[in-house]
C-alpha cells in the first residue's frame, strides 16, 4: 500500500458511503398495516405510533448531513493523504455507517435507557473519530494546505471534543433522568452546527 493516497478517490468513496447511510436511515420507517383499510382513525393512530421513529430519523439525518459538511470542509484543508489520515477517515466511516442501527433501536424503544445509551455511545465514537482525525493533522501540519489557519484549526479541534463526545455522553447521562432530555441533546448537537453563525471552514467540526 502506498504512503500517499489519492485525495479525490478517498473523498468520492466517503461521499458514496454517506449517500448510502442517508438512504438506509429512511428505510427503517415502514408503512403501518391496519386491518380496516378504509379507517382513517386506525391509520392515523398507526401513523402516530411511528412518531418516535420519525424523530430518530430526523436527528440522525441532520447528524449525518453535518458530518458530511464538516468532512468536506476538513478535506478542503488537507493537502495530501497518508496512511494515518486514510485509516482515521475509515474509522469515521465505520462508526457513521453503523448509525442506522442505533437509530432503528431508538425508534422502537424510545423510553428504554439501553437504546439511549447505545445511540449516544455510537455517536460519541463517531465524534471521537473526527476529533482524532483533527488531532492527527495538528501533529502532522505538513499534510495541511499552507493557507490553513493553524490557530483556528486547533481551536476547532478542542470544540469538536466538547460538542462531540462530551455532548453526546452528557445526553446519555440526562437520559437517565428522562428520555426527552437525551432526545433534546441529540437533536441540539446537529442543529447547533447548522445554525451557528460563527462557523468557518476551520472552525468546529463534528
For the terminal residues, how far apart are their CA atoms? 29 Å
Share in helix: over 70%
Mean pLDDT: 89
Radius of gyration: 19 Å
- Category by helix and strand content: mainly alpha
In N-to-C order, the SSE pattern is HHHHHHHH
What characteristic shape results from the CA principal axes? elongated
Domains counted in the coordinates: how many? 1
Oligomeric state of the chains present here: single chain
The CATH class turns out to be Mainly Alpha
Number of helices: 8
Largest sheet: none
What proportion strand?
under 5%
Please name the CATH architecture: Up-down Bundle
CATH topology type? I/LWEQ domain
Uncertain runs with pLDDT below 50, 5 residues or more?
197-205
Could you give the count of β-strands? 0
Description:
The chain is mainly alpha-helical and 206 residues long. It has a single domain, classed as I/LWEQ domain (Up-down Bundle), CATH 1.20.1410. It is built from 8 helices and no strands. It has helices at residues 7-27, 40-48, 51-76, 83-97, 100-108, 113-139, 150-175, 179-195. α3 (51-76) runs antiparallel to α5 (100-108) and α6 (113-139) packs antiparallel against α7. The longest helix has 27 residues, at 113-139. The two termini are 29 Å apart. 30% of the residues are buried. Mean pLDDT is 89; it is low at 197-205.
Amino acid at each position: 500500500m502506498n504512503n500517499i493516497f489519492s485525495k479525490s478517490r478517498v473523498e468520492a468513496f466517503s461521499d458514496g458511503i454517506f449517500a448510502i447511510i442517508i438512504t438506509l436511515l429512511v428505510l427503517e420507517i415502514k408503512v403501518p398495516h391496519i386491518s380496516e383499510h378504509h379507517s382513517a382513525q386506525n391509520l392515523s393512530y398507526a401513523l402516530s405510533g411511528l412518531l418516535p421513529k420519525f424523530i430518530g430519523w430526523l436527528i440522525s439525518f441532520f447528524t449525518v448531513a453535518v458530518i458530511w459538511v464538516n468532512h468536506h470542509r476538513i478535506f478542503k484543508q488537507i493537502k495530501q493523504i497518508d496512511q494515518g489520515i486514510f485509516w482515521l477517515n475509515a474509522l469515521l466511516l465505520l462508526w457513521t455507517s453503523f448509525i442506522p442501527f442505533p437509530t432503528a433501536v431508538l425508534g422502537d424503544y424510545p423510553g428504554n435507557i439501553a437504546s439511549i445509551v447505545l445511540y449516544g455511545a455510537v455517536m460519541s465514537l463517531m465524534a471521537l473519530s473526527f476529533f482524532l482525525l483533527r488531532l492527527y493533522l495538528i501533529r502532522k501540519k505538513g499534510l495541511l494546505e499552507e493557507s490553513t489557519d493553524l490557530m483556528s484549526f486547533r481551536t476547532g479541534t478542542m470544540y469538536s471534543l466538547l460538542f462531540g463526545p462530551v455532548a453526546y455522553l452528557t445526553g446519555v447521562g440526562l437520559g437517565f433522568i428522562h428520555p426527552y432530555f437525551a432526545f433534546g441533546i441529540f437533536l441540539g448537537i446537529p442543529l447547533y452546527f447548522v445554525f451557528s453563525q460563527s462557523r468557518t471552514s476551520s472552525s468546529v467540526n463534528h
